[in-house]
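Example with several molecule types.
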Amino acid sequence: EVQILETGGGLVKPGGSLRLSCATSGFNFNDYFMNWVRQAPGKGLEWVAQIRNKNYNYATYYAESLEGRVTISRDDSKSSVYLQVSSLRAEDTAIYYCTRDYGWYFDFWGPGTMVTVSS
Amino acid sequence: QIMLTQQAESLWISPGERVSITCRASQSLLYTDGKHYLSWYQQRPGQTTKALIYHASVRTDGVPTRFIGSGSGTEFTLSIEHVQPEDFAIYYCLQTLKSPLTFGSGTKLEIK
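Resulting structure tokens for the full complex:
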């Protein structure tokens, strides 16, 4: 059974940084691209970042609105993906979801981790 | 970037009715392999987001046949026949043709 679980959310002051983790199990992690998607309270889904697998040289892609402040990475030995977000702003307050990427759609999603940016 | 427009923010229908949710792309989502890189997702409170349709019209495993994806080029539709109580949720389209990947703004299905 595919399992995805995000951790690392919490309350952060504006200007601070956060590292979110996504632990997975139940599938061969090495074979898949992974993504982060976020959702601000009461708003829609926003794609944040993608990291491809070793076959694609771990290429990374980012949403234009976040580029320069976020870094996605993965550790295949731990079947985990990470999202480092810096210079946090109030508008970064959201649930952050980790998703498995089947190549042309996001087939499994985690329950998300809440990030609140407030002083 | 490719923009996806879901015109209807909300749709009010009665259980048992048929409903269509549209998603319009700012450019064609057809790739050279002949497939459209457009997928649909369902969000229900307290549940993880669920993929319903990929390549515009292919149902994912276990999705009931009442969910029908259609469309081509820049115009896509998710139809639900004989809407069931559990179908009242928010639906999003997503394009994975080109980075940055983009979602539609979502359409909430509400009980009339």
